Amino acid sequence: MLTLIAVAAATALSGAPHQAPDCRVAEIYFESGRANLNNAALQSVDAIYGMARQAGWSGVSATVVGHIDGAEGTQGLVSLDEERAGAIRERLESLRESEDGSPAPWTFIVGGADDAQPAREAPGASQPLNRRARLIVCSGTG
Questions:
Q1: From the centroid of its chain, how far is CA 122?
Q2: Which residues contact residue 74 at a Cβ distance below 8 angstroms, ignoring those fewer than 6 apart?
Q3: Spatial separation of the C-alpha atoms in residues 115 and 121, rounded to whole Å
Q4: pLDDT per position as a tens digit, 20-33
Q5: pLDDT tens profile 95-111
Q6: What is the rounded CA–CA span in Å between residue 119 and residue 69?
Q7: Who is most buried in 4, 25, 76, 138, counting CB within 10 A?
Q8: Which residues contact 90 (CB under 8 A, 6 or more apart)?
Q9: Residue-wise over 121-130: b if at least 16 C-beta within 10 A, else e?
Q10: What percent of the chain has pLDDT over 90?
Q11: C-alpha dihedral over 23, 28, 33, 34, to 10 degrees?
Q12: According to the model, what pLDDT value does residue 59 have?
């Protein structure tokens, strides 16, 4: 609530209208027990990056949250969620570094979570839909 009031006050003082950020969401899927990006995952990450670049966003915030399924959790692979998120961040950073000139700044929030599973599963179950990372990329306007 205080954030909204502060944004409204700053907008009123500056005379500029507040524009909500434009965001895109992608689910990036992984093979069981792995955090490396396969071809399909690379294509998804590259597509999101290309969209942000083509849109000419002046700055980008990227939130990446990795997830594991129940079987991976029982195998002691609990850090795999963060490794998956980190692999996506590394790919986005390598795409930015390969650009000519000065690319727009990106801000990253990377982490892992074992909640918010899209597919219900029994404890210890293998569920491919839960072996993923969610990538949320938003424009720097806001």
A1: 26
A2: 123, 124
A3: 12
A4: 678 888 999 988 88
A5: 888 876 666 678 888 87
A6: 9
A7: 138
A8: none
A9: eeeeebbeeb
A10: 13
A11: -100
A12: 79
Tell me which residue has tokens 């949320």.
136
Query: Residue 51 — φ and ψ, nearest 5°?
Result: -65, -45
Phi first, then psi: give them for residue 5, nearest 5 degrees: -65, -45
d(CA 132, CA 29): 4
Please give the Cα distance from 23 to 5 (Å, whole number).
22
Closest CA to 38 of 46, 126, 74: 46
The per-residue pLDDT for range 57-96, each reduced to its tens digit, is 777 888 888 887 777 766 766 688 888 889 999 999 888 8
